Amino acid sequence: MRILDIRHLTVPIESEMANAYISFASMDVSVLAIVTDQVRDGEPVIGFGFNSNGRYAQPGILDHRIIPRVLGAEPDSLIDPDTGHLAPDRIWHAAMINEKPGGHGDRAVAVGILDMAAWDLAAKLAGRPVQHLMAERAASGTGTPLERVWVYAAGGYYYPDRGTAALLDELRGYLDLGYRTVKLKIGGAPLAEDLARIEAVLAMLPDGADLAVDANGRFDTATAITYAEALRDLPLRWYEEPVDPLDYQALSEVAEVYPGPLATGENLLSRQEAVNLVRYGGLRPDRDVLQMDSALSYGFTEYDRTLAALAEHGWSPGRCVPHGGHQFNLAIAAACGLAGAESYPGIFEPFGGFADADPVVDGYVTLPQVPGIGLEQKSSLVPVLDRLRDR
Ligand SMILES: [Mg+2]
Questions:
Q1: Class of domain 148-379
Q2: What distance in angstroms lies between residue 385's CA and the mean position of ligand 1's atoms?
Q3: What pLDDT, in 10s, does the model give residues 139-187?
Q4: Active site amino acids
Q5: Record: fold of 3-127+384-390
Q6: Would you say the C-alpha torsion 345, 105, 138, 121 has a positive or negative sign?
Q7: 158-170 pLDDT, tens digit each
Q8: Is 276 marked as a binding-site residue?
């Protein structure tokens, strides 16, 4: 069993929206294929991966460091002797040879793309849905994956020329799609305006639905605390990324004045950064939410280690709700018993969203029962995957 080629494409996911920190007008994604010499059902076996939104495509690091190392590795060193198959952890270690600790940044994104493809490949080689393979093989796997995963709809971005009526229409649309929790961006407007947006949404939500808010790391400590005091008596699901993602002191000061759940972690790119967050961020393992995203932070191979490290610090997988809105994190949530996963209905297409045949029902979504991640079960993604397949 051999890897024949590793290919990638850069694909735009441009959009006119913005959060408190960035515009998404020039955002793009790397999509990668690991092509093997194996055939299943008459088709060559290819594993596919991509990065989440919020970071950019990684053509430089993939071409200069990551792909040459994997293609240059002794082929048998990538094979698990027990299964005889190409193994994600072995591919991961080949990709990371001669990389120093720390300095994660875009390297973590590039390896995350490769690792998603390696898990898709491993599951296709095994003929198993990836959530089953992970649940059975990973240290943090539960043995049997969840049949359905809680998901919430992240939206409520700031768009040029869109007012509160359009915002309410957008969030109502998510409820109509079956979501029960929606999320709104804050911090891109003055506090009074943000409060008016939040209160308009709360007034619109039916019984059984709730709202989270996300500041995208925008605030300094004083502003984050001013917002915390303004938000603390509102029935919010959580208050997300009030301060810079690496400012654990500031986060702990916000936690002192905000009794409700805080959420953060999407901009942490390694196990060590997640450990530092729970050591020093003042977060509370009985209520706060950790949002590290495998597809931005060295993949599931690293996330599995992160979950083990979090457990040593008293944090359960039931406090984790990964950022990203893609099928890989959905599978990880099912395999490891996470609380849920983010979703971006209708935005960041075609990478956001789940398989066509798995609608959201009452806030939960099922997973495709096909070999691999099931990326081919999302019709809008198929033309992108085909561009890599047919070269
Ligand atoms: Mg966020």
A1: alpha beta
A2: 27
A3: 999 999 999 999 999 999 888 788 899 999 999 999 999 999 999 999 9
A4: 185, 323
A5: Enolase-like; domain 1 (3.30.390)
A6: positive
A7: 887 888 999 999 9
A8: no
